[in-house]
Amino acid sequence: MPHAVHGDEVPLTLEGTPPKTLGVLDQGALWANLAVSLLGFSGALFLIDPLGGAPLSLTAALVATVVGSLIGTTMVGLAAIPGTRTGQPAMVLLRGLFGARLSYVPTGLNIVQMVGWGAFELWVIAQGALAIFGDTVPYAVWVIVAGVVTTVLSVWPLGAVRLIRRYITVLVIIAMIWFAVQFLGDAQPRTGGSWEAFAPAVDYVIALSVSWVPLAADFARHSRSSRAAFAGVVGGYTLAQVACLALGVYAVAIAGAQAVAADSTAVFGPFVAVPLGALFFAVLVLREADQSFANVYSTTVSLQNLMPRVDRRIISTVIGLLTIAIALVVDVTSYGAFLGVIGAVFVPMFAVLAVDYFLLGGSARWNTAADAPARWSMLAPWALGFAAYWLTTSTPTIAPWDGFWAGVREAVGFTREPWMNGALGAAIVAALVTLLIGLVRRRAARR
After folding, report:
1. Domain regions of the chain by residue span
2. What compartments host this protein (predicted)?
3. Average pLDDT of 83-98?
4. What's the sign of the alpha-carbon dihedral 77, 78, 79, 84?
5. pLDDT tops 80 at residue 383
6. pLDDT tens for residues 170-196?
7. Residue 233, by phi and psi: left (phi above 0), alpha (psi -120 to 50) or beta?
8. Beta strand residue intervals within 370-441, DSSP E
């Protein structure tokens, strides 16, 4: 590992001062690339038919994509602003919301999900490489190579962001345009369908976006302004995610919905099959490394909330090796279910943070010190928002878990209507409870 990091890079420990070097183009390029995922193309299958038997019309699916993307990216963009203002990464910011010790709870959850996502992305990269080159190079070799690249990028994170803006984004745009032109000639738009599953489809798209809430501030703290961070997230991510899912609708149509449902990597076939497909798909496979890099780097700064004086290069190296080890044995089964769980955890947490920080004067008193006092009351709206998500969502996950919440709805006499949306339900409940707690606290302080 290198012995020194330049002054325009992330400080080695949490106690260093973060440089403000990222402009709106840097942020936009980063988030646009994060929105384009290899298995995001197969995610079009969940978008089109989230309930497994009530497919959306093409118009309904595209509207759900735009609506869900705008809602989700607005959440991510707002979550980025406190990071820009305070210069603190996401999990350290939560000291101001929950207190230093209680912030370890969401920090632990974030570390688990980020390590899982990091390993998942190495698996995706390896599968994409196998789709291009076949079995001439073993799966394990691709995982190790991708893991090494990921770790190197995590050691120089701001350099990685600048690299993405200058070179990778342009190549990705060219590749996406190429595949769009090819697919439009090979597949006919879907016909039929309805709007019945519109709310679950929006839930799914929100979950795709909001999964980045826990790391938004990790990069936004290096932004030159809050406006640049917010615009980069909302603009870059929304445009790219809509394009990715729209392209995925055609890729799934070519590969066959049943084939993609049985094996999510079957969606790679149409990309490789078109003229020059292997070349342009290799660009997308290479680009996937920014996903694994973002996850490993976020895990690193999350761990610094627990170990503020440990050199982040050491942490990144350990996490990089761990993700490689996991990816060598991991498999993908419940992708859509996993996104549902992420939404249920982090959507209400974001709502609590947004209300407390922006509406209740939290920005003027935000305490991110290592001895920030516990704020137990903030756990209540988070927990209630989590429950509201599962009471209102109609997106299926795992049968025993869905059955449990069906029993809860029956026990409390709650009827879930078709128009209800889990993410919005969670956000509204968590926000209203947080606002109520804040108003009660203000009244008590006046007395």
Report:
1. 24-329
2. Membrane
3. 95
4. positive
5. yes
6. 999 999 999 999 988 766 666 677 888
7. alpha
8. none
pLDDT tier, 25 (very low <50, low <70, confident <90, very high otherwise): very high
Distance CA 359, CA 377 (A): 17
Q: Quick one: pLDDT band at residue 139, thresholds 50, 70, 90?
A: very high
| Cβ(142)–Cβ(129) below 8 Å | yes
Q: Which residue has the higher pLDDT, 49 or 239?
A: 239
| Cβ proximity of 73 and 237 under 8 Å | yes
CA distance 137 to 117: 24
Instruction: Please say if the pLDDT value at position 337 is more than 80.
Output: no
Please give the helix or strand (H or E) that residue 284 lies within, else none.
Answer: helix 277-287
Length of the chain: 447
Closest Cα partner for 29 from 125, 160, 139?
160
Q: What is the DSSP letter of 134?
A: G
Contact 40, 356 (CB under 8 A): no
**pLDDT on residue 189:** 60
pLDDT of amino acid 35: 92
Could you tell me which residues come within 8 angstroms of residue 444 by beta carbon, excluding any fewer than 6 positions away?
A: none
Is the CATH number of domain 24-329 1.10.4160.10? yes
Q: What are the structure tokens assigned to 27, written together?
A: 């942020």
Alpha-carbon dihedral 287, 289, 293, 295, rounded to 10 degrees: 100
